[in-house]
Amino acid sequence: WQVMPLLLKSCPNLHTLAIKGLVHRVTNRCGDACACVPKKHSKILNEDLCCLCTCQVKVLEIYEYGASFQEMKQMTHFLDKLPCLETVKVGVADDKYHMRKFLRANLLYLPRASSKCHIQFI
To answer: Domain span at residue 64?
Structure first.
């Protein structure tokens, strides 16, 4: 995840970002997908660090979405910070498929930076 800001800055023409799973095993070297996700020990303003705010990604594909607290937090962050986002494609994890309607309802009500953003379930 630490490489995400570098990837986004190095690829200004990136229009589709596909991610398999939004969470990972946490170690003492791990961070969130964007450095501007608030941390307890950090006092740096979010706007100063956000690599997503200038990102041109139009399509975000999330596979194996499980709707854990961490995944919902990360999804909220992506939707709130990606101003050019037009489509979010969400693939629900197999073990959460029975909760698909509930997950759909939760995601559809999240605020978005882009008024053009639509969420699709695949």
So the answer is: 4-121
